[in-house]
Design a protein that fits this description.
Blueprint: H1 8-16, H2 22-40, E1 43-46, H3 48-63, E2 75-79, H4 106-113, E3 117-122, E4 134-135, E5 139-140, H5 156-163, E6 169-174, H6 180-186, E7 189-192, E8 219-224, H7 227-237, E9 264-267, H8 278-293, E10 297-300, H9 308-324, H10 332-338, H11 350-353, H12 356-363, H13 369-390, E11 395-399, E12 415-417, E13 420-422, H14 424-438, E14 442-449, E15 455-461, H15 467-480
Parallel strand pairs: 2-3, 2-6, 9-10, 9-11
Antiparallel strand pairs: 1-3, 4-5, 6-8, 7-8, 7-14, 11-15, 12-13, 14-15
C-alpha cells in the first residue's frame, strides 16, 4: 500500500516509531497532489513552505525525544471555511478572495497543538452552501470515482482529497449534510459531532467582522478513511472553550464493551415518504442482512412521533434566519442563490411550495424574531421526540441521501429519483438535514457501490453527547462490514 493511503493513525505511529519521517510523509502527499489535483481540483490553497518547516520541526523534536501530540508530524487538510492564521481563507466566496486571517479557528488551533502539519486548504461550495462543490474563486471539484460526477458538498474538496490519497484527514463542517453527503459520494468515512460539542468559532460564515448568528444546526467534524481516525480527531477538537461559552464541558463516554452481537440497531430504508434511489435501498438492505448474520439485533423501525415534514420546514425557517443574520451585506437574492435554491425568480414554482424543506427556507425571509423563537420552540419538541426514539437503540441506520453522486449540473435544478422529480435540496440533503436539525451525532461509513461503480454510504445515528460511544459502535461495525476501497488510478 502506498504511504498516501495509510490512515492518519498509522502515519502518526510510523512517525513516532521513526519508520518514516514527517518530511518524507509530507513529500509523498505533495507529490500525490501535484500528480492528481489538476484533474480533481480538490486542493484550493497549498502552504508548502510552512508545512515543510513544521515537518522538519516535528522530526527534530522527535530526535530530541519530544512528542507534540497524537498527530505529531501528520499532514492534514482543512476545509476553506475555517480561518487559518496567515493562510488564505475564502469560503469559496468572491468577496473573501484575498482574506488572510490573523488567527486560527479554535478547531484548527487544537489540531496544530496536537502536532498536525497543515499542508493545504480544500475547495468548498461558496459559503458552504451547496451539495456540489463549485465556486467563483477556485472553480469546480470532481469526484475521483468519476470526474464527470460531483464529489458532494460543501466539503467536496476534502472528501475528494481523502478518497484520492491527497490527504489522510480533513477538518470539515456540516450544516446540512456537508460532511456526510461528500463522504457518501466519495466512498469514505465522515463524522458530524453533536451540536455544540466542538467549537465553531472561526468558521465562515459568519463573515469576518459580523456578530455570531449561526447558533444551531452547524456541526464540526472530520473526513477520513477509517473510523479510528475520526475517533482520534474528535479527541483533539472536542471540548469547552471560554471564547465560545455555549460549548459545555461534557465528559464523553469513551467506548462500549458490548460485542457486535449484543447491539440493538434500528433501521429504515425511507423516512417521511422521501423516496430513495433503488440501488441505495438495496445496498442498505444487504448491509442490514450482513449485520444480522454477524449477530446484531436489527429491527426496521421509524421514529413514529417525529414529524419529518415539520422538522424539514422548521430547519429551513430557523437556519435560514441565522444565515441571513450572518452578514447584512448578503442580500435576499444572494442568500437564495447561496442556499442553492435557484427556484426564486419571479414566482415560486408549485413543486417547491409543496416541499417542506424548501418551503421552510422561503418562510425564513424576511427575518422576524418572534417567528425565529417559534421555530426554536418547535425544534426543542422535535429533538426530545428523537431522543425518546433513540433511547431504545444503540444506533439508528438510514440513508445519507436520496441519491448517489450525480453528473455535474446547475445548482437548484430538480433531480429525478425513481422517476420522481425532487427539488434539488430535498433530493441531496433531505435525510442529512434531519440530524442537523436535531443535533444528533452521525457517522457515515461506506457500504457498497452502484452498478456504475459509484460509492454508497449509510448514516449511523447515535444519542446526543455520546459521540465516542457512537464511534466505537461504528468501529465495531466497520471491522466486520464496510471498508474503504481506493478508486482506481490513484
Amino acid at each position: 500500500m502506498s504511504i498516501v493511503f495509510a490512515t492518519a493513525s498509522q502515519l502518526a505511529q510510523m512517525i513516532r516509531d521513526k519508520k518514516v519521517s514527517a518530511v518524507e510523509v509530507l513529500d509523498a502527499y505533495l507529490e500525490q497532489i501535484d500528480k492528481h489535483n489538476v484533474r480533481l481540483n480538490a486542493i484550493a490553497t497549498l502552504d508548502v513552505e510552512r508545512a515543510r518547516t513544521r515537518a522538519i520541526e516535528a522530526d527534530e523534536a522527535l530526535a530530541r525525544g519530544e512528542n507534540c501530540g497524537v498527530l505529531h508530524g501528520v499532514p492534514i487538510t482543512i476545509k476553506d471555511t475555517f480561518e487559518t492564521a496567515g493562510l488564505l481563507t475564502t469560503a469559496g466566496y468572491k468577496s473573501l478572495k484575498n482574506y488572510v486571517p490573523q488567527q486560527d479557528a479554535i478547531a484548527v488551533e487544537r489540531l496544530r497543538s496536537a502536532g498536525a502539519v497543515i499542508m493545504a486548504k480544500t475547495n468548498c461550495a461558496s459559503l458552504a452552501a451547496d451539495h456540489q462543490t463549485n465556486n467563483s474563486v477556485f472553480g469546480r471539484t470532481n469526484n475521483p470515482w468519476n470526474l464527470d460526477y460531483i464529489p458532494g458538498g460543501s466539503t467536496g474538496g476534502g472528501a475528494a482529497a481523502v478518497a484520492a490519497g491527497l490527504s489522510p484527514l480533513e477538518l470539515g463542517s456540516d450544516g446540512g449534510g456537508s460532511i456526510r453527503q461528500p463522504a457518501h459520494c466519495c466512498g469514505i468515512y465522515g463524522f458530524k459531532a453533536t451540536d455544540r460539542l466542538v467549537p465553531s468559532l472561526g468558521h465562515l460564515p459568519e463573515l469576518p467582522g459580523y456578530p455570531k448568528s449561526i447558533r444551531h444546526v452547524l456541526a464540526i467534524g472530520t473526513l477520513a478513511r477509517c473510523v479510528e481516525d475520526l475517533q482520534l480527531c474528535l479527541s483533539v477538537i472536542a471540548g469547552a472553550d471560554s471564547r465560545q461559552p455555549e460549548i459545555p464541558p461534557v465528559t464523553l463516554k469513551t467506548s462500549t464493551k458490548k460485542p457486535l452481537s449484543s447491539l440493538r440497531i434500528a433501521w429504515t430504508p425511507e423516512l417521511g415518504n422521501l423516496t430513495v434511489d433503488k440501488e441505495i435501498k438495496l445496498a442498505l438492505t444487504n448491509f442490514v442482512t450482513q449485520l444480522i448474520e454477524a449477530g446484531c439485533q436489527v429491527e426496521q423501525q421509524i421514529p413514529k412521533e417525529f414529524d419529518c415534514d415539520l422538522a424539514w420546514q422548521t430547519y429551513g425557517e430557523s437556519y435560514g434566519q441565522e444565515i441571513l443574520a450572518a452578514s447584512p451585506t448578503i442580500t435576499w437574492d444572494n442568500i437564495m442563490q447561496t442556499l442553492k435554491m435557484n427556484y426564486y425568480k419571479t414566482r415560486v414554482d408549485r413543486q417547491y411550495k409543496d416541499s417542506p424543506l424548501e418551503r421552510g427556507f422561503l418562510k425564513a425571509f424576511p427575518t422576524d424574531f418572534k417567528k425565529y423563537m417559534k421555530a426554536l420552540t418547535i425544534r426543542d419538541r422535535l429533538v426530545a421526540q428523537m431522543d425518546n426514539f433513540l433511547a431504545d437503540w444503540d444506533a439508528y441506520l438510514c440513508p445519507v441521501s436520496s441519491i448517489t453522486a450525480f453528473p455535474h449540473q446547475p445548482k437548484g435544478k430538480p433531480i429525478e429519483v425513481n422517476k420522481i422529480k425532487l427539488p434539488y435540496t430535498t433530493a441531496c440533503g433531505g435525510y442529512a438535514t434531519l440530524f442537523n436539525f436535531t443535533g444528533h451525532p452521525v457517522v457515515v461509513i461506506p457500504i457498497g457501490k452502484t452498478q456504475a461503480g459509484l460509492p454508497i454510504g449509510v448514516q449511523i445515528v447515535g444519542k446526543r453527547w455520546q459521540d465516542r460511544l457512537l464511534l466505537a459502535i461504528a468501529q465495531k461495525i466497520g471491522q466486520t462490514i464496510g471498508k474503504f476501497t481506493q478508486p482506481s488510478g490513484y
